TrEMBL record:
PROSITE patterns: VWFA. It comes from Niastella soli. InterPro entries: VWF_A, vWFA_dom_sf. Residues 65-295 form the VWFA domain. This is VWA domain-containing protein. It comes from the Bacteria.
Length: 316
């Protein structure tokens, strides 16, 4: 017999139907919460004893991955700008969708994967791991994806667990880079050759993680400590690479601004620039779509990279 099956990245024996996967926010209920992300394996065969027969998988080279961590706490329901009807979460849902769908014509979209995670005091997968090609097929247009994101984001309205969201993303990123996710078959992440401003060459996995928030860690009055970023320990081929980009929607005078900025490392292409984006003025909002496009396409790291990408886009 065949079923549409979701399998845990940590244990191929942990398999669930779509209803169970959705009820558990695409996390394995048999693993500690957040540690076993479920991936859709489509129809798989099951023998007479109920044992899953692993699907035949092709060898895949040059895979790219973007993980988006979207703040869905109560403050994200506030207006994006003064005297403006659109909320911050509506603005983010629209910008994420437009950014991803702007890559729908990319000839490598079948090898570019996204995973969108929402967080308040709980972590939830808003869009499970899938290729941009499949995402475009499933949601049809940017408006379809925007609607799906808003529907799930509206259900979250709690506190802010940035620490938990980063840990979930870090575990999956390290597994992906190490080619440890066996249910993906034989695969390797794409490796980019990045030449920095000092003419030094770096080989970096084609993976990006983008954190977008409008505040700091808050799980209660006595639980406001923002932990150091786990991505400072992300390793590939014996070297440490910090692939986390942080975006803050607020003011540089906010009490949490410096804490959020402390998560950012320097850009490998522009070593003097932080992988940190500040959205403190309505005129900068036009860059949101570009930021999410850049993250989804794993084509840059910092505000200078984004400016360069925008220049190229305008030139054509």
């Amino acid at each position: 017999m065949s079923n549409n099956t979701w399998i845990c990245v940590n244990n191929n024996g942990h398999a669930y139907d779509t209803i169970t996967a959705e009820q558990n926010s695409y996390f394995c209920p048999k693993c500690p919460y957040g540690e076993g992300i479920l991936l859709n394996q489509g129809p798989v065969s099951i023998d007479n004893e109920g044992t899953i027969i692993p699907p035949m998988t092709q060898q895949q080279e040059d895979l790219g991955l973007c993980i988006m961590l979207l703040d869905c706490s109560g403050s994200m329901a506030e207006p994006a700008f003064m005297n403006h009807p659109m909320s911050k979460r509506d603005l983010i849902a629209k910008s994420v969708s437009a950014g991803i769908f702007s890559l729908s014509g990319n000839p490598l979209k079948e090898f570019a994967y996204v995973l969108i995670i929402g967080f308040d005091h709980e972590i939830e997968i808003l869009v499970p791991y899938m290729s941009i090609e499949k995402l475009v097929q499933e949601y049809r247009d940017a408006a379809g994806l925007e609607h799906a994101l808003k529907e799930k984001m509206y259900k979250k309205n709690g506190a802010t667990d940035i620490n938990g969201a980063l840990e979930v993303a870090f575990r999956f990123t390290q597994q992906f880079i190490n080619s440890e996710i066996s249910i993906l078959g034989t695969y390797k992440p794409r490796i980019q050759a990045v030449l920095d401003d000092n003419m030094m060459n770096h080989s970096i996995p084609n993976v990006r993680v983008l954190l977008f928030t409008d505040g700091g860690q808050f799980m209660g009055p006595d639980k406001t400590t923002l932990n150091p970023s786990p991505f400072r320990n992300l390793q590939y081929d014996g070297k440490v690479f910090d692939l986390l980009m942080s975006a803050y929607y607020g003011s540089s005078s906010d009490k949490d601004y410096d804490k959020l900025k402390s998560l950012a490392s320097k850009c490998p292409r522009h070593p003097s620039t932080d992988q940190f984006f500040l959205f403190d003025d309505p005129t900068k909002v036009a860059n949101l779509k570009g930021l999410f496009r850049m993250a989804s396409g794993a084509s840059g790291f910092c505000p200078t990279c984004l400016d360069e990408a925008n220049t190229v886009t305008r030139d054509f």
